[in-house]
Design the sequence.
């Protein structure tokens, strides 16, 4: 009997490397060879040069040795999150139950699907680790002067941790996919879940950026000895200590024992046991856990009730065709789980940001730095406006575009309705962080009002940019397309850049001796210097976004060539 | 407005996608109130022709007028007097049938009150009233097709483009749509331009048929004329003779060796 899992492995590998398709073998070979050279030779060399350039290694070797256990736990925690959640989030964006049906109809066991899809992912994720791990670890290899055998064992440990996490992620992904099924409803739920997983990845990263010392100390607590990523991290630390070339004395090794608490054998055994358990559960549970259900389409029929107070109010304010379009846009937007996830994402950002701003803006006891408050809040609002309305949720398919375009000025009417939706949704999303910031910083009513107007203008400008850009470059609901990635990245980065562009101009002006700051304050500073900052930050976004909306509307209304 | 009873007139219409010609030198006249069928195999250029005539696609060369309006300069006026049923459904999965049709009405400038009377009647005719408040994601493909038919007729267009209107419908729904087309054409002088590869549908509802192959119009006439010219028993056999659909049974099983 042929190995069915191998056919699935090949198919998965071909899908993941489809961008290299014309010369797949050559490219993958080049990447592998370069990766090995990079890991064994180039990365340590490069890191060594950089370290020597900053400071001779001998001067901070002690610090590196002390940092190593905590930092390794933090890095392994992030790696675990990344490897576990990223493939899960990625897979949920496109449920592939249709492929499962084909496989099952060809008498393939679930176990073969699980093994096949897992092995197919290994080359690509392996390469990613091969390129990313050495720069992180090399500095400690240098600090500990780890022998070649020690280095090989450390990379082996890392590989085992990576493979185990990927297997676990693959198992959970397949389980969720089989439960959600291939239906518009299940697909929508999956996309919503994928978006929330992105929050789960992003939040710890932000946390690590801002609270690295605190996080390191938290990860040093006993409770984290229960987590598999800690065992892998500790094994790596022990291997670096055991195979060190520094000749660490017994008392120094005892210090590591105090920090790590579990010895090399215990951590190693726990790690291996976890890997074997994951493998066993996956193989044994595969055929029991996965029951292919056709999902929500046949199980749930959602019937619409009468319109709520808000929608009825909108119809009263705008009783004509435009009101109907806005109401329809509202219904469509709020019934999609992925959009609700985006709103949840926006609310989380909206609540987190004021706290972050407050920790930064209280420069001294004399009070709050309003200029920094404006800048930070602006950055937050570009994220909220851009993230919520970029990419998906605009047009589901090309066929939908044909329908809209077949109405006279259909594209223009559609975009106006979508913008009205964005402006209304952003009202509470702006009010929330502004209120929190006002309370945290003790702002008065006038400052609150000005701050709200500024934040709302930035959020609306970003949403306009995102909407216009998506109309110019529709990605429909394909969240894995390059168009989607471009729309999302540009919708966040461009408004942020535009908001900060006056500041850049002022810096350039100062270099060439043109007092732009004074000129801007003279023009816009009716209510003081901070108001001048706020107005000059908002103008570029509103102007450019208006232009992008105009171009997007034109593009959407144009017949194709 | 239609001129001299001609609803659609094309003159040397061409469309190429890169090196591939989709429509070649199409000269066509469709009369007001007629039911014109554009028959052809998959990839023959039927959908491309409809998209050009409905103002969604720009032709490579040639000219055309639709309801008296030039396709180069009066696209919005053409859209206002035509309806298009696309080949594949582009419905909003999270709207109900009523909400989707209200959306289409609003895109065409109708308020909720103005469009709801028509929506109720169309959904009743198409037998969807019992499911009209369910989200479209739970509809079968045939039901979705019926909603699309309703959306095409909602603003009472003078000319209706139907791209494979019955491809996803069961026989009874298909018969219903055929009757709807015939009734609208006879009672309201609505012109129908139907793209299909279903010869039975074309034979039943169309008074004039054009057969297009590789972007080129090969035959034009009434179903009876085409059958007689091809010396065939019915339109399907005539179509196969013109398109070249002879099947070699030996070749069909050769792959098993």
Sequence:
């Amino acid at each position: 009997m042929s190995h069915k899992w191998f056919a699935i492995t090949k198919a998965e590998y071909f899908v993941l490397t489809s961008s290299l398709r014309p010369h797949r073998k050559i490219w993958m070979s080049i990447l592998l060879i370069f990766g090995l050279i990079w890991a064994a030779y180039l990365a340590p060399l490069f890191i060594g040069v950089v370290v020597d350039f900053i400071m001779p290694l001998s001067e901070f070797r002690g610090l590196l040795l002390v940092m190593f256990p905590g930092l390794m736990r933090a890095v392994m925690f992030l790696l675990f999150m990344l490897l576990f959640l990223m493939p899960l989030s990625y897979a949920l964006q496109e449920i592939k139950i249709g492929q499962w049906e084909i496989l099952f109809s060809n008498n393939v066991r679930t176990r073969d699907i699980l093994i096949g899809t897992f092995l197919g992912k290994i080359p690509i994720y392996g390469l990613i680790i091969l390129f990313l791990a050495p720069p992180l670890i090399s500095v400690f290899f240098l600090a500990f002067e780890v022998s070649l055998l020690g280095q090989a064992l450390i990379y082996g440990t890392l590989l085992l941790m990576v493979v185990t996490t990927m297997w676990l992620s693959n198992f959970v992904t397949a389980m969720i996919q089989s439960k959600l099924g291939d239906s518009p409803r299940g697909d929508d739920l999956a996309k919503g879940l994928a978006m929330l997983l992105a929050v789960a990845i992003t939040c710890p990263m932000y946390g690590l950026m801002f609270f690295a010392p605190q996080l390191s100390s938290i990860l040093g607590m006993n409770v984290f000895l229960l987590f598999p990523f800690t065992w892998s991290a500790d094994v790596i630390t022990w291997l670096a200590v055991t195979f060190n070339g520094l000749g660490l004395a017994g008392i120094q090794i005892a210090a590591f024992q105090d920090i790590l608490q579990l010895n090399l054998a215990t951590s190693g055994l726990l790690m291996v046991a976890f890997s074997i358990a994951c493998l066993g559960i996956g193989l044994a549970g595969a055929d029991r856990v996965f029951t292919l259900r056709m999902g929500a389409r046949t199980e749930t029929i959602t019937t619409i009730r009468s319109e709520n107070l808000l929608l009825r109010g909108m119809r009263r304010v705008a009783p004509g065709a435009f009101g109907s379009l806005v109401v329809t846009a509202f219904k469509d937007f709020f019934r999609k789980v992925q959009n609700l996830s985006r709103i949840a994402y926006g609310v989380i950002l909206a609540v987190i940001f004021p706290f972050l701003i407050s920790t930064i803006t209280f420069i001294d006891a004399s009070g709050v730095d309003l200029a920094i408050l404006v800048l930070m809040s602006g950055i937050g609002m570009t994220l909220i406006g851009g993230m919520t309305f970029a990419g998906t949720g605009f047009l589901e398919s090309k066929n939908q575009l044909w329908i809209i375009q077949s109405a006279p000025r259909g594209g223009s009417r559609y975009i106006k309705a979508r913008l009205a939706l964005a402006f209304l949704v952003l009202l509470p999303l702006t009010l929330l962080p502004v209120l929190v910031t006002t309370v945290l910083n003790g702002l008065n009513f006038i400052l609150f009002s000005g701050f709200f107007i500024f934040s709302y203008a930035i959020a609306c400008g970003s949403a306009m940019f995102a909407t216009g850009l998506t109309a110019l470059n529709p990605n429909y609901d394909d969240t894995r397309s390059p168009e989607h990635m471009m729309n999302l990245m540009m919708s966040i980065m461009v408004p942020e850049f535009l908001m900060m562009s006056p500041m850049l101009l002022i810096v350039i002006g100062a270099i060439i001796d043109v007092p732009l700051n004074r000129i801007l304050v003279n023009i816009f500073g009716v209510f003081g210097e901070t108001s001048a900052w706020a107005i000059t930050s908002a103008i570029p976004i509103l102007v450019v976004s208006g232009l992008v909306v105009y171009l997007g509307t034109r593009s959407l209304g144009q017949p194709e060539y | 407005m239609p001129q001299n009873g001609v609803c659609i007139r094309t003159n040397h219409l061409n469309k190429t996608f890169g090196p591939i010609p989709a429509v070649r030198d199409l000269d066509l006249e469709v009369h007001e109130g007629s039911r014109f069928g554009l028959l052809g195999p998959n990839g023959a250029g039927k959908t491309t022709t409809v998209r050009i005539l409905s103002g969604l696609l720009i032709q490579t060369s040639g000219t055309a007028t639709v309801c008296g309006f030039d396709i180069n300069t009066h696209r919005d006026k053409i859209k206002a007097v035509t309806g298009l049923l696309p080949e594949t459904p582009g419905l909003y999965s999270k709207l109900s049938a009523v909400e989707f049709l209200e959306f289409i009405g609003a895109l065409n400038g109708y308020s909720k009150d103005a469009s709801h009377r028509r929506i109720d009647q169309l959904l009743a005719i198409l037998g969807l009233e019992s499911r009209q408040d369910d989200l479209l994601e739970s509809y079968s493909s045939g039901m979705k097709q019926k909603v699309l038919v309703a959306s095409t007729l909602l603003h009472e267009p003078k000319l209706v483009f139907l791209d494979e209107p019955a491809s996803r419908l069961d026989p009874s729904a298909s018969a219903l749509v055929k009757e709807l087309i015939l009734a609208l054409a006879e009672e309201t002088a609505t012109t129908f331009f139907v793209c299909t590869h279903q010869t039975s549908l074309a034979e039943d509802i169309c008074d004039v048929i054009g057969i297009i192959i590789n972007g080129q119009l090969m035959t034009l006439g009434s179903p009876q004329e085409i059958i007689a010219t091809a010396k065939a028993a019915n339109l399907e056999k005539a179509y196969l003779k013109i398109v070249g659909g002879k099947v070699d049974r030996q070749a069909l099983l050769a792959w098993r060796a």
About this structure: Chain A has 22 helices and no strands. The CA atoms of residues 160 and 272 of chain A lie 8 Å apart. Residues 4-292 of chain A form one domain.
